[in-house]
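Example S7 (structure tokens).
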């Protein structure tokens, strides 16, 4: 409850003055807000390059402001990158190359990375030094990026990576209700060639599907020049090699054939996702 004991006119004047002050304060606040918004927009333009700021509903989305800045930073990195760095940047930014970051870390499914594994996986992708320079058992020098291990003929990890990827493919088929067998034995062979896996059920083309998985190294000496021209170039080459090597074997056994090639830095070949 408001109690008044003074002159009414005096109170009215005071109220008018207060209202004027509030109005002035609002105007000042609006001006300050406009100035801040203008300053923020100028700063954003400085980072985002020659693009217009988002308007209307889009202006309320953080992503609309972030993406042009990220794109401009990425383009700048590409223009300054040497050939291996360019190949690395193109590969790690390609479609689905970052899908592993969205994987739920479920230990029972083998989807949990240790801190050390996460450090190495991230370091490889950003080109950070992850090892001390040393000499490999194959006599090659390993630089601090540690990437040599992916293409070294004497690296034990290559076999394990290959086996794990095929296991994941077989499990994916089974999860989709399609029976699949790894390294199927009851096939008419071409001497020395064995497919990585095959489904037991017929697929959409009316034939069981055979696959062969390969994991070419994005930055291997034999691939880096192509990898620097576009993401997935090494995987694309590997797919064609697999078709040449295994397509006939699959056809001999009335199997459709799908090469699956995913590079060490995550790029897929063009046929894999299909
Ligand atoms: Zn080596």
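Recovered sequence:
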């Amino acid at each position: 409850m408001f109690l008044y004991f003074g002159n009414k006119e005096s109170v009215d004047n005071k109220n008018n003055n207060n209202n004027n002050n509030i109005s002035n304060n609002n105007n000042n606040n609006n001006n300050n807000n406009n100035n801040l918004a203008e300053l923020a927009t100028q700063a954003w333009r400085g980072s985002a390059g020659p693009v217009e700021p988002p308007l209307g509903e889009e202006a309320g989305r953080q992503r609309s402001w972030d993406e042009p800045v990220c794109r401009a930073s990425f383009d700048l990195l590409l223009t300054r990158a040497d050939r291996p760095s360019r190949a690395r940047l193109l590969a790690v930014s390609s479609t689905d190359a970052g899908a592993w970051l969205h994987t739920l870390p479920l230990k029972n499914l083998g989807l949990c990375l240790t801190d050390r594994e996460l450090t190495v996986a991230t370091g490889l992708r950003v080109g950070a030094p992850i090892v001390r320079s040393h000499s490999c058992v194959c006599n090659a020098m390993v630089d601090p990026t540690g990437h040599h291990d992916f293409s070294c003929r004497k690296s034990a990890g290559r076999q394990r990576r290959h086996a794990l990827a095929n296991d994941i493919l077989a499990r994916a088929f089974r999860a989709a209700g399609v029976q699949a067998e790894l390294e199927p034995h009851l096939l008419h062979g071409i001497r020395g060639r064995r497919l990585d896996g095959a489904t037991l059920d017929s697929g959409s083309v009316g034939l069981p599907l055979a696959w062969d998985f390969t994991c070419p190294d994005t930055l291997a000496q034999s691939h880096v020049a192509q990898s620097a021209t576009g993401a997935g170039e090494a995987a694309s080459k590997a797919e064609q090699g697999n078709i040449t090597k295994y397509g006939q074997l699959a056809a001999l056994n009335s199997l459709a054939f799908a090469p699956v090639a995913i590079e060490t830095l995550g790029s897929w070949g063009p046929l894999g996702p299909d």
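Notes on this example. Helices lie at 8-48, 62-80, 83-92, 115-126, 148-151, 157-175, 224-227, 233-252.
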